[in-house]
From TrEMBL:
Pfam families xrefs: Lactamase_B
Parts forming coiled coils: none
The protein, known as: N-acyl homoserine lactonase family protein
Alphabetized InterPro entries for the sequence: MBL_superfamily_lactonases, Metallo-B-lactamas, RibonucZ/Hydroxyglut_hydro
Keyword Membrane among record annotations: no
SMART domains in the record: Lactamase_B
Gene3D superfamilies hit by this protein: Ribonuclease Z/Hydroxyacylglutathione hydrolase-like (3.60.15.10)
Family per similarity comment: Belongs to the metallo-beta-lactamase superfamily.
Keyword tags: Hydrolase, Metal-binding, Zinc
Residue ranges occupied by any Metallo-beta-lactamase domain in the UniProt entry: 42-250
CDD domains linked: AHL_lactonase_MBL-fold (cd07729)
GO MF entry, a single one: metal ion binding
Amino acid sequence: MKLHFLSTGIMECDHTWLLLQAGNTIKDRHHKHEPAAWGECPTHAILIETDDGRILWDTGVPRDWESRWAPTGFQDFFPVQEDPAGPGFIDSALADLELTPDDIDILVLSHLHFDHAANAKMFDNGKTRILVQSDEIEGVKTIDGAFKGAHLVSDFDGLNMEAVHGDTEIAPGVSVIFTPGHTWGTMSLRVDLPNDGTKIFTSDAVYMGASWGPPAIGAGIVWDSVGWLESVEKLRRIQEQTGAEVIFGHDSTQRESMKIAPNGFYS
Ligand SMILES: [Zn+2]
């Protein structure tokens, strides 16, 4: 088994979105030079090559973020860095490994937010299975109009999504952990690697190391705060049982310590 950490675009934002601190107010890019917790908010995807096929976890941000996000206003709050020398997007990250979306057997979406599911339609090829937690599929059906919060309906409408229910093994050594709270059906990913040990990818169940604590510290965008806290404690129990390394959804400091594809992988 090989696990690749793919860089799929770096957003910037006021970290108050991710970690509420007393007295902080949320700022947009026009006010980013005023005292604020403005910083990087990187996104990633995980590619796992197994004997049974290739599994991809999440898809990062879209290339057309500025126009696609315009109806929501999020383009001002989460602008994506466009440094030609910087990290690319999911298509270029796969291309760096000489792969295309058609080479992916199973795409698992941690949840359907605009910075995770944005490129899911690239995988609508009649071949890639697209797995989403049942509660997330049901949740987005309640959205009236083009978007609600960070759920952008055009990212996933018409997509053939297969429901998974609760904690589920996707392949030997690869399973999803049901960690709702951030959204209706947010999932985390657990991978048991023969050499590098167990890794847990929390997606937005835990944004960054500072959210994890202990104590766990909540954030601006949480659908259900109590459910969120229960999910963090569930992950903490699994971490304590397995000694897993926990990789957070949007942690720029932790990212610096990761082997980023195509320059390395975990096995
Ligand atoms: Zn996110």
